[in-house]
């Protein structure tokens, strides 16, 4: 009974957090549709630009784009395996997460309210994996 209650609570938290994230990615931060489609399909290109030009970007820009893209997704690594037993295996978890984040990145591209950036998928996945590892460290 206790496990059922915990799973139900984590599912509710996951739905709420996902909703908040969708809002941030598609509508928040004063986003409005651009006239053009923006995308990066070259792995590590954006990350390399931020690292190579660290002194040219304001600290907050660097922090949001690198650290933020990792940190904001840590809760998914915590909540997803707790909410859904089938996501406790790392391959299932990672496949589900990457598909979900790719759908969100594609939505940003198609709605032209952001960009599709493969580096965002990489950083987001690192954050989710950090949360996933934290859960297993705590459980074990």
Automatic annotation (TrEMBL):
Protein name, as recorded: VanZ family protein
PANTHER family assigned to the protein according to its UniProt record, in alphabetical order: INTEGRAL MEMBRANE PROTEIN, MEMBRANE PROTEIN-RELATED
A Pfam family per the record: VanZ
Source species: Salinibacillus xinjiangensis
Origin: domain of life: Bacteria
Signal sequence range: none
Domain VanZ-like: 18-138
Keyword Cytoplasm assigned: no
UniProt xrefs under InterPro entries: Teicoplanin_resist-assoc (IPR053150), VanZ-like (IPR006976)
TM spans (from-to): 12-32, 59-83, 90-109, 121-139
Keywords: Membrane, Transmembrane, Transmembrane helix
Coiled coil: none
């Amino acid at each position: 009974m206790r496990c059922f209650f915990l799973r139900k609570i984590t599912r509710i938290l996951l739905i709420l957090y996902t909703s908040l994230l969708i809002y941030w990615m598609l509508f928040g931060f004063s986003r409005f549709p651009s006239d053009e489609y923006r995308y990066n399909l070259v792995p590590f290109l954006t990350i390399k630009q931020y690292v190579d030009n660290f002194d040219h970007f304001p600290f907050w820009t660097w922090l949001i784009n690198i650290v933020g893209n990792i940190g904001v997704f840590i809760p998914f690594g915590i909540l997803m395996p707790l909410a859904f037993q089938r996501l406790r295996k790392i391959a299932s978890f990672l496949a589900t997460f990457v598909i979900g984040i790719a759908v969100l990145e594609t939505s940003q591209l198609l709605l032209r309210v952001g960009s599709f950036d493969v580096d965002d998928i990489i950083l987001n996945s690192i954050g989710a994996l950090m949360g996933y590892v934290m859960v297993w460290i705590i459980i074990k």
